[in-house]
Amino acid sequence: MSQFKQTDPKIYSKTVTVKSPDSFYWKKLGVPTLVKEFGAIDYIDFSPVEPYLFAVTASVRVQIYNPITKLVVKNITKFQEAAYGGSFRKDGNLLVAGDELGKVRLFDVNTRTILRFFEGHKAPVHRTFFTADGHHLASFSDDRTVGYWDIATENHLHTFTGHEDYVRAGCTSPISPNIILSGGYDRKIRMYDARVKDCVMTVDHGQPVESLLFLPSGGIFISAGGTSVNVYDALSGGRQMAQLSQHHKTVTCLQLASDGKRLFSGSLDRHVKVYDIATYQVVHTINSSNAILSLGISKNDETLVTGMVDGLIAIYRREGDHRDVHRPDKKDHRYIVENADQTVTEVKTTRIPGYDRMLRNYEYKKAIDAAMLVNIRCKWPETTVAIIKELIRRKGLHRALDDRTPDFLVDFIKFLTRHIGDYRFTPTLVDASNILLDVYEDSFEKFAGTIVGKAFAGLAEVLQTEEHLIHEFINLQGALEMISVAADTTEPDSGEDASTLYDASKKAKNHTVISVD
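Above: the chain's sequence. Below: its structure in token form.
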């Protein structure tokens, strides 16, 4: 007896995904721990020193978490209105934050006491950062200005102007205590020098700027706004070096990792993209449960935190031994004996899926039942379509669909409605729809007003839409062929009869349109 030929559900092969070392490295962060905050997560910043605590700014407080226990260890609540942009100094001992009232507060991380209080802005301050020397502050406000403050004397040293809209993004140079970068909703990025107290460079990002950062060298800076991330060379007057457009919604935050060798970008499209700074190529993608407003990563790459619009923070943490340990493939059943002359391979019995066992026994109703199970039709619709195609080939789909329960009919019609527009499945599902209508042609009056009748009406509407779309494509194909024929028609010589040109034009107009399958 010949072996039964199983149904091949691989109608179209999937694109092969190449696993890079970065994919393995970042996937070790594992499943995130979700923590609920009191409002949308405005900003996340990690302390540059161990144990790499991170500050989460949300609502009217800044909460400092331990990345290992994932619990709050410090709670700073000295704000009357919403707090913004809490960030650490490079020694991890001080933290600065702005607020809705335009004030800037400097805190001692250990005691949570206010050490300095800076006033001068007339609108909310959304970002605050320490300069490279740790002795000055830069604040970025909705009053379209950038403030420059001295920590020791609590004096306001200068106000940088030039923006024509809110200034919601900024950063300070990692190597120079005098260079400040600001980004505004006027789409402009402006570089200020505290020594000359003026703007020394301006570039146009093209969209409202949401985030800025310098690379560790200080000669290159990166901006995020709209759906693009732009890379600029500060040493050549702001020449754009690259534009990364990997998101389809607004990019809200940027962070560096792996000692400045990797760039993270978070977006409202719920994705975090990881780029290789050397090539500006995406090397990994992390999916989130909601739109991302902020993200932070520890200096040793051990903890990644993303903040979302719904007030949730996702804490990704590498647990256990992170060394690469080789494990043999569990599917490899070879038994190899050293110093032996032969390798014995275990003989495995091929298991036939349930729907193929039904087809083998000509039980067509049970075969379609097995193909319409929820875990099959939802996860692998190509398998269900393959079974339907095999039943049509055997001329057994009529028998499989006859005398079925309303629940089955509704599920089957919903499957047709959902996937009939997929070009891979359209021919098979159109034939299945015709067979279904033939089987229940005499029962439409009985189905009127029922859930089955509504399902049939929905299927009819989808079929009409597909038919209209095909007609539009046929018309478009005809128009394109007319243009093609007209373009291929060479201009006649002056001695030719004028009727030659007329015949060519008439031939183009009467050109036969090829129908689309």
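The mean pLDDT is 85.
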